[in-house]
Design goal:
The protein has 225 residues and is of the alpha+beta class. It has a 4-stranded mixed β-sheet, covered by helices on one side. Strand 3 and strand 4 form a beta hairpin. Helix 4 packs antiparallel against helix 5. The longest helix is centred in the first third of the chain and has 33 residues.
């Protein structure tokens, strides 16, 4: 009986010792490996992949691209404004009805016609008047300057001298009567502008003695002569 009690006490003590050991192991057991490794993995990811929202290279390039687009848009607007201002600065077209002189199909006399020209600056007025001398728009009125090419024109506003440089193809040459009519038609057309006091005609840059070889050519031709 005594031995039985001793064995029970020993068995109870052993159970208590084992239970205490298991409890201690449970308290000192390290945390699971997976939970310990998660923070370091996330930190590594954060260190190697910075957030895009902090203005990293992708956003900077995108912002630069957007800025460029805005800039080009602004440039287009500026060009539009500049073009608009330039258009405002340009003189508007003016229209003028002038007398232009031609001859009849038989070259018997000069014929006057009324023609409308348009121009922006004064010099264009004289160029357009010469163009009107080249085309009558009527079979009854023969232009005497139709095939003659105007290569240069200028006006000395101080003296009122109109400089003309022309080229005369062979097919544009006239007889003595036609040459005289050509000079008269030019003088009467150009001298209707009060600011023109004289006309100096050069042929291929040269001050020739005669326009077509028949009539003398003054340098310059003065109003009233």
């Amino acid at each position: 009986m005594v031995n039985k009690k001793i064995w029970c006490a020993v068995l109870l003590s052993a159970v208590m010792i084992v239970g205490a050991g298991c409890g201690q192991k449970a308290k000192t057991a390290p945390p699971p490996p997976a939970s310990a490794s998660e923070p370091s993995s996330l930190q590594a990811d954060e260190s190697t992949s910075p957030p895009v929202t902090e203005g990293t290279a992708p956003d900077d390039s995108t912002a630069g691209s957007n800025s460029g687009n805005d800039s080009s848009g602004g440039t287009r607007e500026t060009k539009g404004e500049s073009t608009g201002e330039a258009a405002k600065d340009q003189p508007s077209f003016q229209k003028l009805t002038i007398d232009v002189y031609y001859t009849d199909p038989q070259e018997m006399e000069l014929k006057k016609a009324r023609k409308e020209i348009s121009y922006q600056v004064p010099l264009e007025k004289y160029v357009e008047a010469f163009k009107a001398l080249q085309d009558s728009g009527s079979t009854d009125l023969v232009p005497l300057w139709g095939k003659i090419e105007l290569t240069k024109m200028s006006l000395d506003t101080d003296t009122g001298l109109l400089h003309m440089d022309i080229h005369i193809p062979d097919e544009a040459r006239l007889g003595s009567g036609g040459e005289q009519f050509a000079l008269d038609s030019l003088k009467q057309t150009m001298f209707q502008f009060d600011e023109i006091k004289a006309i100096d005609i050069l042929v291929d840059g040269q001050a020739v003695e005669s326009l077509m070889g028949h009539m003398d050519l003054d340098h310059p031709i003065k109003r009233g002569e």
